[in-house]
Each structure stands twice: as structure tokens, then as C-alpha cells.
Write a structure and sequence with these properties.
Radius of gyration: 18 Å
Protein name: Enoyl-CoA hydratase/isomerase family protein
Strand content: 15-25%
Shape: globular
InterPro entries: ClpP/crotonase-like_dom_sf, Enoyl-CoA_hyd/isom_CS, Enoyl-CoA_hydra/iso
Number of domains: 1
Pfam families: ECH_1
Family: Belongs to the enoyl-CoA hydratase/isomerase family.
Distance between the termini: 38 Å
Keywords: Isomerase
CATH topology: 2-enoyl-CoA Hydratase, Chain A, domain 1
Number of helices: 13
Length: about 260
């Protein structure tokens, strides 16, 4: 199973802790992204569930983005379905109108950073793990939906380095620029912070929380379909697919990519 689900008791109902266990780097494929979207929609429809914590027991990787092996084994005409899956998952995360909390206890690159910023509250381990939108560094244009969300939380002075350079940040650095909300020295402390926040949010009237969250994210949600179309168009630009495959091959071969 790609995800381990644990139901917990919280004030006024239940919560869920969803642990990522996709593979050794918790990397993303079209299928496991669809699986997570389905889980979130199931919880969204269950009135007894008041919120979700996303986490992992993997000590090194929270989520290391798109799976290189999977992309390299996918035919070129199907690549957009795999790569575009993160845009669709991002939409499901943003439309999940109950409390969504992320514990970043390891590296969160590319898709891992996307999942993080799509959450309402983001807590990161103050350790060796890094977080960053590394899409441009593997030849992928950063989707507009991700950029809109980055602008909602990151200090404007850092938009360029986050989006255009694919800069990666340790916990304290990520907190400084607004990419995460809080840091803690141990996974146990991260869990305490996350549970306390989930318990606090569960006391807010559910209808009010959900309506307000949908309004908060309303402008972004309204443009999701257009952003999906834009992503498909950007994928068709000359060199994008070749550069992506070169980046994935270089990652597999543990060398620097040579882009066109």
C-alpha cells in the first residue's frame, strides 16, 4: 500500500494521519497520486472526519517528487499523464476543504514541496532535510497554480529564487521565507505541534471552516482547469520532454544532466 491510514480521536470527531510509504524515496507516480486524491475525497465526504495530517515514517524523504524510474519507463506520448498528475493532485489538495496539516520530516523536493504548500499548516523538521520547487532544474516549467500558491505564503522577496532557481531550503531557511510555518528539532515535537493544531481546528464549526477555506482558495480554485491546460501546452514546448528525460537519466546514473 502506498499510504498507511490511521484514524485518531480528536474533539468533535475523528482525524486521519496519512503516512507516505510509496517507495524508498516516497516518489510520485500517476497511480499513487490518484490514490491520494481518492483518499482525500473519501475523507472530504465523511462528516465524522474533521481533518488530516500528512506525514511519513521514512527518516530521509517526506516526498522526493516525481519517480525517475517510472518516467523513464513511460512512453513519450503518456508522459504528460504522469507529469501532469501532480497538477491534478495539487488541485485535489487545495479543494480539500477540511484542515490539512503536513509534517515535513525529510526531503521535500518538487512534488513534495507542492504537497506541502497546498496544505493549510506546514511544519518542518529542523534537520538535514531540504524543501524546494526543483521543477525548473529538471527542465519543467513551474505550473501557474503552484506559483499562485507560493505567492500566498512566501515573502515576495524570495519568489524569484523559489520559482526560477529552484532553490532548496533547510527548515530554518524555509520558515524565514514563509515556505513553512514552524520548525521543531525532532519528529516527536513536530507531531505534538501538528496534533495540537488539528485539535484546535476541530473545535471550529466545520461548516464555517470549510466555507471560509473555499473562499480563501477561491481565486486559485477558479483557475485550476485553465492551469491544467496551460501545463499541457508548456509540456509541448520544444526541448521540455527531452530535458526532463535527460534529467531523470542523469539522476539514475548519478551524474550532472546535459540540457539542450
Amino acid at each position: 500500500m502506498n499510504y498507511k491510514r490511521e484514524v485518531i480521536d480528536i474533539p468533535n470527531g475523528k482525524g486521519e494521519i496519512i503516512r507516505f510509504q510509496m517507495n524508498d524515496q516516497n516518489s510520485l507516480t500517476g497511480q499513487n497520486m490518484r490514490d491520494l486524491g481518492e483518499i482525500l475525497n473519501e475523507i472530504k465526504a465523511d462528516n465524522s472526519k474533521r481533518g488530516v495530517i500528512l506525514t511519513t515514517d521514512n527518516p530521509k524523504f517526506f516526498c522526493n517528487g516525481l519517480d525517475a524510474e517510472n518516467l523513464l519507463s513511460t512512453s513519450r506520448d503518456k508522459l504528460i499523464d504522469e507529469v501532469g498528475g501532480i497538477v491534478i493532485l495539487f488541485g485535489e489538495l487545495v479543494k480539500f476543504d477540511k484542515p490539512l496539516i503536513t509534517e515535513v520530516t525529510g526531503h521535500a523536493m518538487g512534488g513534495g514541496a507542492v504537497i506541502t504548500v497546498a496544505s493549510d499548516f506546514k511544519y518542518m523538521l529542523d534537520g538535514k532535510g531540504r524543501i524546494g520547487f526543483t521543477e525548473v532544474n529538471v527542465g519543467l516549467p513551474l505550473p501557474g497554480s503552484f506559483i499562485d500558491r507560493i505567492k500566498m505564503c512566501v515573502d515576495p522577496r524570495y519568489w524569484a529564487e523559489v520559482c526560477l532557481e529552484g532553490t532548496t531550503y533547510k527548515g530554518a531557511e524555509a520558515k524565514k521565507i514563509g515556505l513553512v510555518d514552524e520548525i521543531a528539532p525532532t519528529p516527536e515535537e513536530i507531531r505534538k505541534i501538528a496534533l495540537k493544531k488539528l485539535e484546535t481546528l476541530s473545535k471550529v464549526p466545520q461548516a464555517a471552516y470549510r466555507a471560509t477555506k473555499n473562499t480563501l482558495n477561491g481565486a486559485l480554485i477558479a483557475h485550476l482547469e485553465q492551469y491544467k491546460k496551460d501545463t499541457t501546452k508548456s509540456f509541448e514546448q520544444p526541448g521540455v520532454v527531452d530535458n526532463l528525460l535527460e534529467a531523470m537519466t542523469a539522476l539514475k546514473e548519478k551524474r550532472r544532466p546535459v540540457f539542450k
